[in-house]
Write a structure and sequence with these properties.
4 helices, 63% helix, mainly alpha, binds protoporphyrin IX containing FE
């Protein structure tokens, strides 16, 4: 840790918000990775991995609900007082867009699967499609699902880049807001 950062005081997110942030990052990355290789897979194993993609997507939606309720209840730590008002506003807009896309993508994905006549096998129970199969409507929703997923990838990439930029260039402790506190030894960040 650099000398300059030792003097920064960091107001962190609470542990549950931090856990949900990184768990969802992991799950979205896996859902993306699986979607990326689906077309390369042999026909025999493809349905299994398509189902894995559906299951992870559904869990992302469920976790998002938990995360939003938790956020409304607990709130977020205040941003550093020396941060420019425009930067604060921009980060709020980006976070709102990320939340919107994290909801839109799995919802549209579920609608696509259902219009294809596909259910979701969660291992212990199966959710069958409540919709009448329609390949044309399914194709339309698939386009939206993919477009929104690529938009999320670009936006989350910018978001991660800025978090790392703040950490390594501005050295203002923003990245540490989303990290659990280390056991404090003398001279460490609070
Ligand atoms: C799929 C990828 C990701 C998504 C969808 C995502 C989404 C979000 C959202 C919605 C918030 C706002 C939390 C709130 O105020 O309720 C947030 C905060 C944050 N994220 Fe991510 N994130 C992703 C990946 C990353 C990565 C890779 C990093 C670090 C390299 C990162 C660092 C941070 C930090 C530091 C904050 C707190 C920023 C602040 O306090 O202003 N995120 N993230």
């Amino acid at each position: 840790m650099s000398e300059e950062m030792k003097t920064v005081h960091v107001e962190r997110y609470n542990l549950i918000s931090i856990f949900l942030h990184w768990l969802m990052f992991l799950m979205i990355s896996i859902a993306f990775g699986v979607a990326f290789i689906l077309d390369e897979l042999p026909k025999t194993i493809k349905p299994f991995w398509v189902n894995i993609h559906f299951v992870i997507g559904s869990l992302v939606l469920l976790l998002l609900l938990v995360r939003l309720v938790w956020r409304l209840w607990i709130g977020t730590p205040p941003l550093p007082s020396d941060m420019h008002a425009h930067t604060k506003y921009a980060s709020q807009i980006v976070h709102a867009l990320l939340y919107g896309l994290m909801a839109l993508i799995p919802i549209v994905g579920l609608v696509t699967a259902f219009y294809r006549g596909r259910g979701i096998d969660f291992g212990v129970f199966v959710v069958s499609s409540p919709l009448e199969t329609d390949r044309t409507i399914a194709r339309f929703f698939k386009e939206i699902h993919e477009l929104a997923a690529w938009t999320l990838l670009v936006l989350a990439g910018c978001h991660a880049f800025l978090a790392l930029f703040h950490h390594y260039v501005r050295k203002d402790g923003i990245l540490l807001r989303m990290m659990p506190a280390k056991k404090v030894s003398s001279g460490d960040l609070s």
